Structure formats: C-alpha cells, structure tokens
Amino acid sequence: MLGDKQCFYIIDKANDGTELALTVAKTDKYAPKNTGVFNVYSDIHAPGAVTQMWRYSAEEKAIYSAYFPDKVISEGSNANLFMYPQKDIKNQKFQIDSTNAKVYNEFTDHSVTLGKQESQDNTGDAMAWNVIMAQTSVIFPEKQRWAFKDCAPNTPGQTPTANWQVAQAQKEALEMAKTQSEIADQVRKIQAQAQASLNEASEALTKKAAVAVQAPPAPVAPVAPAKAPEAPAALAAPAAAPVAAPVAPVALEPVKAVVEKKTTIKVGNDDVDDEVEEEKEEDDTQTQHRDESGEVPTVVAAKNLIAKLTA
Q: Does pTM top 0.70 for this prediction?
C-alpha cells in the first residue's frame, strides 16, 4: 500500500491512448448555491495543473486536493466521486494499492473506475470523462488501473513536497487574482448602476421642466373685496302697552223697556254706538224696580257688559 505521498497525479488512459488525470471541478456542483461539493472527473493530463494534483495521508486514509487543501475525495450514495471537507467518515476512507494500480474504498470495496466521455456539470469542460465507484472488475481492468506520477519530474530540481507547496502558492495567487477581478467587476457594476440612476433622474427632471414651460399658467381667481362691517341695527323701541279706551259714563236716565235687536261696539274710538229698535215704550214716569243694592237692574247689566268688554 502507498504511504504518505506529496503532490502526485492519478493517471489513466483513454481508449485511444490519451493520458488522462483525475481532476477536481473548480465550481460548486450546485452553483450558484455554495454547498462545498465539487465533482471529481477525469480530463486530459496537463502537467502543472493544480486541479490535478493530489496528496495522500496514510494515517487518515484520505486523498486531499491541492486545489481544495481542506477537502478530500468522497464516495457518494449514487457511486459518484466528489470533494467534501474532511469529516473522517467511512465514505472518505481510501486505499491506494500501487502494486495492483488500484484506488478503492476499504469499506465499500468499490474501486475508482474511468467512465464514459460526456458533458460534465460545472466543470468548465465541454466534454470530459466521468469517474465512478464500481466493484472491482476482471472484464475491463484497464478502466480501474491507475498510475501515480510525482509532480517533481514535471518541474526540474523540485521535490514532490516542494511542488505541492508551489501548487498551493499558485492556487492562492489564482484565488487572489480571481477575488480582485470579482471585486473590480462588482465596483464596475455598482458604478454603472449609479450612473444609470443618475441618468434616469436627470431625464425625469428635464421632462418635468419641459412640461412646466409648455403648460399655460393657471388662472388666478379674483380676490373679492373685503366686506364692510354692517352697522349695528338700531335698538327697537319697546312696544307700548295697549291702553284701554275710557268708558263713557252711563247717565242715569229714566229707563225705558227695550228689546235689543243688534249692537255694534267699537273699543279704542272713545265712543259706543248703539243701534236700538224700540218696540215698546213705557211711561217715562214709571220708575224701574231696584235690586237689593239699590241700583236699577238695567244699570247693573250695562256696567257688567262694559267690564267684560274692557277686561
């Protein structure tokens, strides 16, 4: 079994003999979400490519990526391979058998197997070779046979460890450049949005000013003159209480027996007109009978009538 190994490539060959290398995708499998899951596939070998550099820890039985130093190769439930942070779990435990050229999971006994060439999700490559985990096969052993090349021969004068360190430095430089580029893009976007907002505001103000110039002035309503205060109404003189007309004294004359047919009395003209039709006249010398008060009954009746009319 392979012991600790720094910076090596895991190599296989395509049907036409093209040298392929196990490669990690640069973008998240579920982008634009940030899940921390990155596909592992096989692509044409490119010496010096950080995405194809690996490190093996015999103690952890884990295969680390130079591109994602905190992530290790993991076997998925659907037999795919992907990179995920080290959790020291069973589907991250791999053995590298350099004698039989195998890479396998010691718990599932599945070997890393080169699959078909097809479009890969979020890899940046139009076409690449799928890599799966499958039972060790004697039918197509070449699909599960891998070679392990040090990074050093591709960089004269450098050891695998040094090459790993160089790969890390290169990756950090690439990430910094990418971050700076993303920041610059964001700044340009913000500036463009701000300029667009200013242009819209300026255009709106221009249109508003043009409309204000073209529109006729609104008519001004005439101001009504102030109303002069009304003179206070003159105080009305209190109404005089009605004054009863004086009653003419009744002369005590010899009473004549009369039958009154019609009488008209006007109050307030200082006179009383009586229209009397005489039907019978008694002797002038005949005296009227007097009541108990000593007055003639006819005189008493006249006084009572006058009192009612003047009440």
A: no
